[in-house]
Design goal:
By secondary structure, the chain is of the alpha/beta class. It has helices at about 1-20, 25-40, 40-45, 60-80, 95-105, 115-125, 160-170, and strands at about 85-90, 105-110, 130-135, 150, 175-180, 190-200, 205-210. Bound molecules: S-adenosylmethionine.
Length: about 210
């Protein structure tokens, strides 16, 4: 099982590398991003004893790119409000750097794991861009003002999921797009508009695109 996971990790990393080669705007960030991963795998930074909410897995840059491009189309169908992106539980921050560096959008990454926050701050010091990193529990921050919010809640406890849905209902602005990984939001505040199969570090998963309708 461990061998299969390692092979999958190498395949995903190679595909990610090939994706980055075609995007010069990502080279600077990716150089510093990979520097540490050259010596330590992402799982060195993750808390190996973590369970439920705090389990780490990642969305490779090419999958993030697919998600952001689709979400952006849905977003601009309904509003011209300036688009800011948030990854709530951003892990090693690769998604926020992708959106910021490639699409020049203001971004916010919220992450509770200190080691990841330090890694993100290290990368942030080498790139220019409007990147807000909140090294704290996402429940202590507001979700207001973001056009697209991404949530990888695959392993979240039922209780956390319920709390998060209540927070999204209350704080997310109307017409904003919320993308969740693995399962959709069950709330009549959100309309499911698309589902897309993507590759992630743990295999394949579905991304669910919702619009906040009230
Ligand atoms: C499965 S990882 C996904 C990382 C990233 N979004 C991606 O797709 O590559 C989920 C991350 O959410 C973080 N997380 C979980 N609960 C959190 C909370 N309440 N506040 C901030 N971060 C949280 C975990 O530490 C973990 O790094």
């Amino acid at each position: 099982m461990r061998i299969l996971a390692t092979i999958w990790y190498l395949v995903i990393s190679m595909l990610e590398f090939l994706f980055v080669i075609t995007k010069p705007k990502l080279w600077r960030f990716y150089f510093y991003f990979s520097l540490e991963y050259f010596f330590f795998s992402p799982y060195y930074f993750a808390d190996k004893k973590a369970d439920d909410d705090f389990v780490f897995g990642f969305t490779p840059l090419f999958s993030f790119n697919t998600i952001f491009k689709k979400a952006r189309v849905h977003y601009y169908q309904k509003t011209e409000y300036p688009l800011a992106f948030c990854d709530a539980g951003c892990g090693d921050g690769r998604g926020v750097f992708l959106v910021n560096q490639l699409y020049d959008r203001p971004v916010c990454g919220m992450e509770i794991n200190e080691k990841f926050v330090q890694k993100i701050m290290f990368m942030k010091s080498f790139v220019k861009g409007n990147l807000l990193i909140i090294g704290d529990d996402m429940f202590n921050s507001e979700f207001q003002g973001y056009g697209i919010i991404f949530i990888t809640w695959t392993t979240f406890k039922d209780e956390t999921e319920k709390r998060l849905i209540a927070k999204l209902e209350k704080e997310v602005m109307q017409n904003a797009i919320v993308v969740t990984l693995s399962y959709p939001i069950s709330s009549d505040y959100f309309e499911l508009i698309e589902k897309k199969r993507i590759l992630v570090s743990w295999g394949k998963s579905d991304a669910y695109f919702h619009r906040k309708v009230k």
